[in-house]
Amino acid sequence: MLSERRLEVLRAIVQDYVGTEEPVGSKALTERHKLGVSPATVRNDMAVLEEEGYIAQPHTSAGRIPTDKGYRLFVDKLAGVKPLSTPERRAIQNFLDGAVDLDDVVGRTVRLLAQLTRQVAVVQYPSLTRSTVRHVELIALAPARLMLVLITDTGRVEQRMVDCPAPFGEQALSDLRARLNSRVVGRRFADVPPLVQDLPEGFEPEDRATVSTVLSTLLETLVEETEERLMIGGTANLTRFGHDFPLTIRPVLEALEEQVVLLKLLGEVNESGMTVRIGHENAYEGLNSTSVVSVGYGSGGETVAKLGVVGPTRMDYPGTMGAVRAVARYVGQILAES
Question: Tens digit of pLDDT for each residue in 174-190?
């Protein structure tokens, strides 16, 4: 275990390196921070930190920089989550409140996160498998053709065309819409099938085949393993950090194009807490020079998806964690109110 003083020295090194982009020397540390000890003692503490793998010396410099292990300890023990100022919180709320639908919410969230953190922002759409039914709409397009619209509690909208085996009257359509909604609204997707299986029996014999067709389309939509969708923004922000990527930025950009990689990076949706993966903790090799800060969002205390940012390991962790958490909270409120 490191002593409190050595933890303070590590904290000072991380803060200075993130702020200045320059390796940090003992003289600068004692001048900038009230460590209460001599430069010789700080040098000794830095030697211990280096020996234990928390800091390293770049070849070209007398100063030291944090390692992945050093950042990890900083995040776990030393970094509080920096609260956003009142104007920042108000700006988030005003920006997100103007959203008109789920696509707009996700798009605005990505832009906002990228602007606040100056990193790459990634937002996952709410998953259908964790949603409940808000409304089912049936619209007649032709005597034997309908559109089925499924709206979820998270604002996601799925549309399907239904070709009916026979013409379906306006009254029958109205009845089906009403009976369907009375049974499924507010229910989780997994609970719906047994609730609607006997519906065709309540209709005239000539309409039952069409009712069954509509139900089949609805159930297919509910169980469909729809590909998890992501929106990404702020990739250009990485170009500001060219020197933070040891060889080239290309592997990072390639990884960001792989949706499966990004979904794994964000982590399992059922983890609602903040997750910070640093450097080599990211399993994908192309992202070994980055850190990922992610958190779940949702309404009513239930996590339906994740959002987060990707940036160099030399990032402002307290500020980034505060921004990611605040944005997730506002997105959750919007979903709850929509």
Answer: 999 999 999 999 888 87
Q: How many CA atoms lie within 13 A of 87 on its CB side?
A: 0
**Which residue spans within the chain are E strands per DSSP?**
55-56, 65-66, 120-124, 133-142, 145-152, 157-163, 230-233, 275-278, 290-297, 305-312
Mean pLDDT of the chain: 85
Question: What is the radius of gyration, based on Cα positions, of the chain?
Answer: 26
Q: Sign of torsion, CA 241 242 246 251?
A: positive
Nearest to 293 by CA among 116, 133, 44: 116
* Residue keyed to tokens 């320059």: 22
Residue-wise pLDDT for 233-270, tens only, equals 988 888 777 676 666 677 788 888 887 778 787 776 55
Could you tell me the pTM of the whole model? 0.77
Coil, strand or helix at 166: coil
C-alpha distance from residue 19 to each of 252, 261, 301, 313 (Å):
23, 30, 36, 13
What DSSP string describes 86-128?
Answer: HHHHHHHHHHHHT--SHHHHHHHHHHHHHHHHSSEEEEEPPPG
325 and 294 in contact (C-beta within 8 Å)? no
Cβ-based neighbours of 34, under 8 Å, separated by 6 or more: none
Distance CA 249, CA 325 (A): 27
